Amino acid sequence: MIGRLNHVAIAVPDLDAAISTYRDMLGGTVSEATDEPDHGVTVVFVELPNTKIELLHPLGDNSPIAAFLEKNPSGGMHHVCYEVDDIVKARDHLVAEGARVLGDGEPKIGAHGKPVLFLHPKDMCGTLVELEQA
Ligand code: CO
User: Fold this and answer.
1) 119: which strand partners?
2) CATH class of the region 5-133
3) Biggest alpha carbon distance in the chain?
4) How far is CA 114 from the centre of its chain?
5) Over the stretch 49-70, which tens digit does the pLDDT of each residue have?
6) Ligand 1 geometric centre to CA of 50 (Å)
7) DSSP H or E run through 59
8) From CA 9, how far away is CA 83, in angstroms rounded?
9) pLDDT for residue 113
10) Residue 5 CB coordination number (10 Å)
């Protein structure tokens, strides 16, 4: 069911420092920073030949990554995103298998304009998993 690795998201406390790490130190191709007010994050994409890294920085007062950064002050891997062909079909299968979908269980339009949902880390080997309908 799961397809390509769409991205790995890394929460960072200092976006400029993270951009410098990925652009100057690692020599990556790094996008401009984009504010995503609906998602409470500012995002920078690092394009890799086979996938993307998303650098996530909190935006606004109720950012969903604020608590994560409190627990991980120097930043850390926040989630992985796998592509699926049909997100509703994938969700129904996962729920039937006992996985918990975060929020109200319905897909939302994610940072790339495509339907996404998140699966509870406790059901996914301790990792927050995002599914995106590619
Ligand atoms: Co993501």
Assistant:
1) 101, 129
2) alpha beta
3) 46
4) 13
5) 999 999 999 999 889 999 999 9
6) 16
7) none
8) 14
9) 86
10) 14
Distance (angstroms) between ligand 1 centre and the Cα of 9 equals 6
CA-based torsion, 101, 131, 28, 63: positive or negative: negative
Find where tokens 């269980």 sit: 105
pTM attached to this predicted model: 0.93
48, 28 Cβ separation under 8 angstroms: yes
| Residue pLDDT, tens place only, 75-124 | 999 999 999 999 999 999 999 999 999 999 999 988 788 999 999 999 99
Residues within 5 A (CB) of ion ligand 1? 9, 81, 130
What mean pLDDT comes out for the span 115-134?
A: 97
The pLDDT confidence band at residue 14, using thresholds 50, 70 and 90, is very high
DSSP 105: S
130 is catalytic: yes
Q: Residue 7 and residue 108: Cα distance in Å, rounded?
A: 17
Query: Per-domain residue ranges for the chain?
Result: 5-133
**Active-site choice (54, 83, 130, 132):** 130
